[in-house]
Task: structure prediction
Amino acid sequence: MAVPSFLARERIVARPGFNRWLIPPAALAVHLCIGQAYATSVYKAALVSHFESTLTAIGIIFSIAIVMLGLSAALFGTWVDRNGPRAAMFTSAVFWVTGFVVGGLGIETRQLWLVYLGYGVIGGIGLGIGYISPVSTLIKWFPDRPGLATGMAIMGFGGGALIASPLSRELMSWYDPAYDPTVAGTVPDGDAVAALFFTLAAVYLVFMMFGAFIVRVPADDWRPTGFDPASVKKKALVTTDNVSAANAIKTPQFWLLWTVLFCNVTAGIGILEQAAPMIQDFFRTGETSTVAAATAAGFVGLLSLFNMAGRIVWSSTSDYIGRKPIYMVYLGVGAVFYVLLATVGSSATWLFVICAAVILSFYGGGFATIPAYLRDLFGTYQVGAIHGRLLTAWAAAGIAGPLIVNGVLDTQGTPGQLVAANYRPALFIMVGLLIVGFIANLMVRPVSSRYFEPTATTPAAARANPERSAAR
Result:
């Protein structure tokens, strides 16, 4: 599919002397906007009331968006790599903003299916394309620090909710004066949520277009000052050859990393999905909990901070200790903290918070490190497309994680009366998943040379004929 000339990759090749540190702000401009997806809980109760529906029916909006994220990232990954980050960011902005407009119209006219179609399907496509759009570009600008590069971008996705949540509350209180976000139990009316959707569409359009029009790609022969590509050959698992997306999915390494990501994300979602009621239930005596609702809300915010910080801190650390060792930490040490949470987490609030915070930092770190891991194994040629295909693991984990936690809790008792012991079966299932992921990571070996692209192939020639490798 051809793109207009002003979006073409050839128009955004950086001139000599371009400062590569101008690229992370472009990536953040997109990821901070699409990271709003983690802030949908701020208007969830309002939509339940407006549509006279259930939490499950409204929760489907978020589930559709996450599934579409994984599917669109997998389907459009090759297109993103071929046409470059500006075309991808522009397309992502169009879909993401259109999703808000269509979703807002659905709220305004009380048609829930329009919200599913708008925010869920259309917006979800924008999520998927936007998520992968800067990844391969950042890896090419920072071949000496790929973990730091992808951590900076994907940290933005984790931090998007930290901006969107308070902004949404303030806007809804402005559109509906009867709504006071500081008073528990009050919810804005549907018109205020619809107005919020239209406002966010306008704000995100500006910021995402800013990112699309400042991003640049390096020339094919560009290298950072002092960086010798041959130096990476000294590191285990790191290749200077390239594997196409079509061939990558034929390798055992791709599916081992798919398993690693699925297990790590499913375990993290086990905490995220139930965070606020979980901390109250762990310290419940009879009908009351020693943890107030406001404190539980603060706990959720703290977890978001650790989720975001883990993306930059752990991903940057992987540049020094390697991708395979850092995933041994995420999965192995993560399993130990899950066991501590299940067995002694209810003995002290501070112990519970530390365990959950460390687990969430590993959850974020796993997201941010996986593009660099793919780059190590498969090279830079189509790393964006390969990353897109791997994100189907996120879509699967987005379904499996809540199903495991909610399914177990449904068998244990009634919400509001659960205690720490009721969570143990679900937590030990997560421990089992992390052990499976740990074993899968241990089995990762260098990719066989029979999957490599011909060494004479230049990046430009490869982009011009992206399907050639599929026939190999």
